[in-house]
Specification:
It is a single chain. The model has no long low-confidence stretch (mean pLDDT 96). By secondary structure, the protein is of the alpha/beta class. β5, α7 and β6 form a beta-alpha-beta unit.
């Protein structure tokens, strides 16, 4: 008999389980093409700089999935069962759907640990999940975005306020400060297809800035891929240089496109951008990531419940 529970497929980009898994992970990102020794050495060095051979990054996603299950159980006991599906690491998206099918789940909701929709990111996750769900006879409902959920904004506002106060205290009273909101860059061609990614990021940034009482802010990009086509910019390293040249004493980094501590935060911001800020003589402070913050878990749970009511009730 089919399980009456609604399956919830929690998706994210994925990360290797250990240093030994970096080459397989990188090969999957490159669509089956193994990285060159130089590319592998560079990525390995970044992970080593962040984790030092001990690999806790996968645990961040595991805790978020567990936190969502707990939030759903509190709101609707026994109604939802959470599964994981990763884009570039095991368990892959298809593995998560297969696990649902094996458990007899016949209705499922997909949600990504990324609040903003792009056809190149969230859209690609949902396509893979939906295709496998159809193969398994599972009705599938996708959550495309939740970038303006009130509790998400509330959680981010608190982080910006707290980190801004820390930055102001460390730079001295009256010194000019700027907030830099950021997210993972995507190829410029998303603008040609009317993709909502950029618009949604700006909407979140504006709502958070307003809630935190911040008037001097800017949106910038980070972590662009190294391909021949142009990617959205300016990059945060360029923006830091412009900010320093404009006379600012400090910058608050708010990478709102991410919800967890991983390479794009721990290396690209905490190591690379931090080093550039020091070189430029300005102070850089980063907000805490959402992780398993109760407001974020409630955001996910309420969004899932809303999708479930719309699709299956």
């Amino acid at each position: 008999m089919a399980d009456p529970k609604i399956g919830v497929l929690v998706m994210s980009y994925g990360t290797p389980e250990s240093m030994d898994g970096i080459e397989e992970y990188y090969t999957h990102i490159r669509r089956g093409h193994a990285p060159t020794p130089e590319q592998l050495a560079e990525l390995t060095s970044r992970y080593d700089a962040v984790v030092g051979g001990v690999f806790p990054l996968r645990e961040n996603t595991n805790r978020q999935a567990e936190g969502l299950q707990a939030a759903l159980d509190a709101a609707a006991p026994g109604r939802y069962a959470v599964y994981q599906g990763l884009k570039h690491a095991r368990p892959y998206i298809e593995d998560g759907v297969d696990a649902m099918g094996a458990d007899g789940v016949r209705q499922a909701i997909g949600i990504v640990l990324a609040p903003h929709y792009s056809s190149m990111s969230v859209g690609s996750y949902m396509t893979r999940a939906r295709e496998r769900a159809e193969e398994r006879g599972i009705a599938f409902q996708a959550v495309e975005s939740y970038h303006l959920h009130p509790k998400l904004i509330e959680a981010l506002v608190k982080r910006v306020r707290d980190a801004y106060a820390e930055l102001a205290a460390s730079t001295g009273a009256g010194k000019p400060l700027k907030v830099l909101f950021s997210a993972h860059s995507l190829p410029v061609r998303i603008r040609e297809i009317g993709d909502p990614y950029e618009e949604q990021l700006l909407a979140t940034s504006s709502a958070v800035a307003e809630g935190a009482g911040v008037s001097d802010w800017q949106f910038t990009w980070q972590s662009a891929g190294r391909t021949r086509e142009p990617w959205l910019g300016p990059d945060i390293l360029e923006t830091l240089k412009e900010t320093a040249e404009a006379g600012y004493a400090g910058v608050l980094s708010a990478p709102i496109g991410f919800v967890s501590e991983h390479l794009e935060v721990l290396y690209d911001i905490d190591i690379e951008a931090q080093a550039e800020a020091k070189r430029l003589g300005i102070k850089l402070v980063r907000i805490d990531m959402l992780g398993t913050d109760s407001l974020y878990m409630e955001t996910l749970a309420e969004t899932v419940e809303q999708a479930g009511r719309a699709a299956f009730m």
